[in-house]
Amino acid sequence: MGLQTVLLTMASGDDSPIFDDDESPLYNLEKMTDLVAVWDVALSDGVHKIEFEHGTTSGKRVVYVDGKEEIRKEWMFKLVGKETFCVGAAKTKATINIDAVSGFAYEYTLEIDGKSLKKYMENRSKTTNTWVLHLDGQDLRVVLEMGTHTEPLGFVCGVIMPGLGEFVDDGTETHFSVGNHDCYIKAVSSGKRREGIIHTLIVDNREIPELPQ
């Protein structure tokens, strides 16, 4: 059973390739004869796998996102360049840059929203909170993202789920449900400017530890 994701939106890495054939789906071994780079990208709706094939003889370029072919170009004369596509439910812009290093060696880097993957994840870690918990036999990933929305929004497995925000004595609570489970994220002031607001996830009256950034 895959990891499900709940996203709450209120008013992340390294950009180097990760080679991990053991965790890649079977189509890699059967079809990806020119696989040169794999990245795992954590967005609000979950972790997405981006795989890139580059034929350094033919110039072929193939991009897969979560196992689905997004781009295929055969017999390209120019071996360097870039490929741009979208990732995730929010259609986040991603670009693979292909640069010559020396001779017939090439370097592949991934950019998300115009930033290197490492920089993007560093910025994202400052505006998101993530929790992972186990409910009803499934692993659930809850993401709180600070944005400009006046009302919190969320989704489970890509389906938008509204959250109900309300003021309480010491802060605010955003309530939502996952199956038959009552959940809310409580926001209170830390009293320190550098730390800002502290967010805590409560599920069935139990506090869930936050995933380290």
TrEMBL record:
<dbReference type="InterPro" id="IPR010695">
    <property type="entry name" value="FAIM1"/>
</dbReference>
<dbReference type="Pfam" id="PF06905">
    <property type="entry name" value="FAIM1"/>
</dbReference>
<dbReference type="GO" id="GO:1902042">
    <property type="term" value="P:negative regulation of extrinsic apoptotic signaling pathway via death domain receptors"/>
</dbReference>
<dbReference type="InterPro" id="IPR038513">
    <property type="entry name" value="FAIM1_dom_sf"/>
</dbReference>
<protein>
    <submittedName>
        <fullName>Fas apoptotic inhibitory molecule 1</fullName>
    </submittedName>
</protein>
